[in-house]
Fold this protein.
Amino acid sequence: MADDLVLEMRDIRKEFPGVVANDKVSFDVRRGEVHALLGENGAGKSTLMNILYGLYRPDGGEIRLNGKPVTFSSAREAIQAGIGMVHQHFMLIPVMTVAENIVLGTEPRKGILLDERVADRRVADMAKTFRFEVDPEALVQDISVGQQQRVEIMKVLYRNADILILDEPTAVLTPQEASDLFEILRTLRREGLSIIFISHKLNEVLEIADRITVLRRGKTIETVPHAGATEASLARAMVGRDVLLRVDKGAPEIGDVLLEVEDLHVLDDRGIEKVRGVSFEVRAGEIVGIAGVDGNGQTELIDALTGLQKIESGSVNIAGHRLSHTSAREALDAGIGHIPEDRQRRGLVLEFTIAENIALHDYAKPPDARWGWLFPARMVGRARRLIEDFDVRGGGPSTRAGALSGGNQQKLVAAREVDRDPKVLIAAQPTRGLDVGAIEYLHRRLVSERDEGRAILLVSLELEEILSLSDRIFVLFEGTFVGEHTGDVSEEQIGLEMLGGKKEAAA
Amino acid sequence: MSDPGPSPSPEQSAEAGTLAARLALKQRAGGIVVPVVTVLFAFLMSGIIIAATQHSVRTALVVFKEIFQGAGLNWVFHPTTSLLDISAYNLSQTLLQTTPLILTGLAVAFAFRCGMFNIGGNGQYLVGLIVANWLGVDLAGLNPFLHILLCISAGTLAASAYAGIAGILKATVGAHEVISTIMLNWIAYWTASWLIGAGGPLQVSNNPTNPVSNQVSSGARLPDFWGVQGFQGLHVGLFVALAAVVVFWALLNRTTLGYEVRAVGFNPDAAAYGGISVKKNYFRAMAISGAFAGLAGTLDMLGGAQNYQIGQLDIPFIQVGFIGIAVALLGRNTAIGTLLGAVLFGALSYGSFHGLGSSAVIDPTLANNLTYIIQGLIVLFIGADVLILYVWNSRKKLRRPPGKTARRAEAAAS
Ligand SMILES: Nc1ncnc2c1ncn2[C@@H]1O[C@H](COP(=O)(O)OP(=O)(O)O)[C@@H](O)[C@H]1O
Ligand SMILES: [Mg+2]
């Protein structure tokens, strides 16, 4: 069995100022297997792979490749040894073609010029063998994110890698693109490649991996074969305690209508109609979910409900107040709480402290301010309480928000929005990029806010999230609702409607 | 083969994105190390230039000593209020130069904090200057205290409104403030030239061909508190500028207005989401920025200058708005940093002009240009301070624990 091992990492240690990112981490990879590295954000997965790829020098431990000890002091050396890595952020040159990007650095030459024909042919051959479905002559800036990722993978294969490292490859993909990627990985596995697949998503790991190594806080917890592993067992290893994967919620106690939307039409920045006649209401004490594939009008709908965007026609009523769509301030004052889909771009001022971010909506009102004069000490007091209540880790009231991890940033946003005691809470992609522990927390919180009598509108691309939380579900497709369901609808039904399937089925 | 020298350190190449982000943070946070290193570098480079052109390292050292003494900074070794003491006199002149630079620096810094680049300091300064001159001449005979207050407020408000034009243009039609403030500079300049040009409304009454304004009435002159009244003494405008530093700090950090300005400056999307009107803040911050620059103009008019003449206080001579940009950048757009930056630039311009101009160390015309060279180098290094920070950080990294392992790895490899 041991001669099957292409790679062994033993007792790897790496320290950064103040953190031990890898503490005696060990794992190994067999020929032709997909080996998943599973762990929460900050567990040390990327660090371990950067060490393997020659980007970091380990402080201790040993790496053996095909049985022989190796040390890499640069990525170039790792590549020569047959290791390839696709990073979380792509490193392609947008203005060059797919083929040019792939051969860059190892170009076939005709004199001093790039031999375009040879390059294109080799790339096309490779695309066919592995069924990549990308046009070698297309410019990288014109192709989708999923295709760009394939280009990154082809780049690695072009350099004859035997070991392919993928760092959170699905984070940037739509569900459809992710399943295409898995198809490609299966093909590569058949060809005898070894793949290290990094993720913090349980279902993905169970879908694709042959063996799974779980990291927690820089330590190896266990390596388990696919057979016998369950979401619950992996989650426990990852977080260190039992995790409730299913949301525990009772029947809703429904009250008055708090959000009422009538025949809403919204244009996007380029004047294209993105929301085309949507009507619905959300009552106190219920969670209404909006499912849909990204780009079907979710962003414009949310922006219109929160006063951030002008509407074309229709109306939005919040607890009886009709929005005039002049500013976010009006919606905030009418009782909207909004967890925005992009916390870094919009939800937080990353350069502000936690305390200043907590005050983002109410900085001008007592107790934060009076007659235009700020009282920073009072902001700090409130921040301290919310940090405690919402279990925000990684800093105190005067820590810069940008220094927090993604999960804690999201908790910070949620804390602020809930603490304002809104009548209507709009949560857009509230758990995007979070790990299981933080997701569990946010889901529990949304349910408890519902039980407090708030009207909650949940907009998410994660079908599972919508299904497990919502009391009622709408499916948004090309700017209109194509389906309305109670919470117990099947995943297949909604999945079909998300792709516009219902209309065709009816026709 | 395994020489890691020429390639960037591993941590940096792997984390390029986050490193840049961290640099940006540090830069905004206003650390003290980099500005100091920036200035030292600029002096070092100019020292090399002098040593090379004068073929003597000694000359370079003497030049710096002359600048230091010319600026009166040696006063701190034997403080005295007597202006018979040359160092005391020099210091008073340095502070006189510093006063408007503090204010134009604050002007640029305030706009920066709201995410805007106000290049219109010169124009706004001119508006303050002209309005103060007009009222300072026309309202002669008023109670001096009232008169001064009126001239200062009116000049400041006018400049504020003037800069506000650029703010409105940005908020409504999206015109970039860099373009509009530059154009406003020229409009202010030509309007001022017409006002005091032959036959112009503000031109001196006793000599219709002389393109110069009237002198402000003696009642409107700012009292000098150090030096001989009327002979370029140090006027109380310095205290007004120092008060403005405190106002700047409080406005930015202790008011809801400042909170909005900072939020918009850091992240306009998040500010809008928070319920802040981004457009209103663009206008308001620009107007406040202009007020600081205009205040500088009024103080200069009522203090040192007292009249305005084409060719003397001409655009090429009125550089305070532009130097304010360097002052603010060096000071990291903070109140205290801007103050220190203004002192540095004030000392540099008076010290090199006076200290070198009157000594025989180097050619006086060269002395003047030397000021520009050093200023230019500082600006250059401010632009490059991200680079300096980068070098500084990697140096720290190389000295840290990995040093040991790196050596071990090399030993193992060989
Ligand atoms: N270049 C670095 N400098 C300092 N700390 C780092 C660096 N890279 C990672 N870390 C820290 O090491 C830990 C592990 O990070 P990482 O390997 O990126 O985790 P993962 O990929 O599992 O999310 C985290 O606490 C992170 O903050
Ligand atoms: Mg990672």
